[in-house]
């Protein structure tokens, strides 16, 4: 039995301090929802978690890029559909022009309508745009690749192409040479439909990429959650356990702190005798 150093009480206090620290950590995990709140708790795990968080945010932005790509391709498809319809009408009028039953007035009306149709075609070709980007009359040097992944070299080439009436060869149609005019119109139709098929294939590619990115993001979030997120039920059990141990520590310290008083009582008995 020692008077100057109450070793029993000191040991209990040391253990009590450890329990208080664990209780504080469990409470912090419960409040934040995360089991790693600073790098000191798990340096390797938090580094892995941060890398996953960067990947997740990159995947989310890549999905936005792909959705923009789908919208752009759909805009292009709408413009190409209108351009195809106009070319079909120009071809019909050209065939009609070749009828031997047409009067001069009929032919003049057909020529005027074809000119109007070509002008309408050019309006669509020159003005179809997405977010300020001309899709069929690209005048500026633009980046023709779209980032569709979270990492380097995960991109797709956008099939920009000039499709004005001059580019496809229908800006000057000489109806007196019917065969040559039909060949020009057919060539223009082939160019437009080929380009439309490229955008159609691009939409399909974007749809598949979007599905894969969403699945990859979900799996990465699940892995990151296993590393970073706290199990609230487990943390509540730890908090309750620490709370019981703290109360027990208080009771034990109260008992151990009575030991010096026992020494005093012994000394008092000696003095009385």
UniProtKB/TrEMBL annotation:
Residues 182-267 form the Flagellin C-terminal domain. Residues 4-140 form the Flagellin N-terminal domain. GO terms for cellular component: bacterial-type flagellum; extracellular region. Gene3D superfamilies: f41 fragment of flagellin, N-terminal domain, Flagellar export chaperone, C-terminal domain. It is found in: Secreted; Bacterial flagellum. InterPro entries: Flagellin, Flagellin_C, Flagellin_C_sub2, Flagellin_N. One of its GO terms (molecular function) is structural molecule activity. Its main location: secreted. Keywords: Bacterial flagellum, Cell projection, Cilium, Flagellum, Secreted. Belongs to the bacterial flagellin family. Flagellin is the subunit protein which polymerizes to form the filaments of bacterial flagella. This is Flagellin. It comes from Clostridium acetireducens DSM 10703. The lineage of its organism: Bacteria, Bacillati, Bacillota, Clostridia, Eubacteriales.
């Amino acid at each position: 039995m020692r008077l100057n150093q109450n070793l029993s009480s000191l040991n209990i206090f040391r253990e009590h301090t450890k329990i208080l620290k664990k209780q504080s950590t469990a409470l912090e995990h419960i409040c934040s929802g995360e089991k790693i709140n600073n790098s000191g708790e798990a340096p390797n795990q938090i580094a892995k978690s941060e890398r996953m968080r960067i990947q997740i945010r990159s995947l989310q932005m890549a999905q936005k890029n792909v959705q923009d790509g789908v919208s752009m391709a759909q805009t292009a498809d709408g413009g190409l559909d209108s351009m195809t319809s106009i070319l079909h009408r120009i071809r019909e009028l050209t065939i009609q022009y070749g009828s031997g039953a047409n009067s001069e007035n009929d032919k003049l009306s057909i020529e005027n309508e074809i000119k109007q149709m070509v002008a309408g075609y050019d309006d669509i070709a020159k003005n179809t745009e997405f977010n300020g980007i001309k899709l069929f009359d690209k005048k500026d040097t633009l980046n023709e690749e779209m980032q569709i992944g979270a990492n380097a070299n995960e991109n797709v080439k956008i099939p920009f192409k000039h499709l004005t009436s001059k580019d496809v060869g229908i800006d000057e149609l000489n109806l007196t040479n019917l065969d040559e005019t039909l060949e020009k119109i057919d060539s223009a139709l082939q160019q437009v439909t080929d380009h439309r098929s490229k955008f159609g294939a691009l939409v399909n590619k974007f749809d598949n990429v979007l599905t894969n990115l969403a699945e990859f993001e979900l799996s990465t979030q699940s892995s990151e959650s296993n590393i970073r997120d706290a199990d609230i039920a487990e943390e509540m059990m730890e908090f309750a356990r620490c709370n019981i141990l703290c109360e027990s520590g208080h009771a034990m310290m109260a008992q151990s702190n009575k030991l010096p008083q026992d020494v005093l009582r012994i000394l008092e008995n000696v003095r009385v005798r």
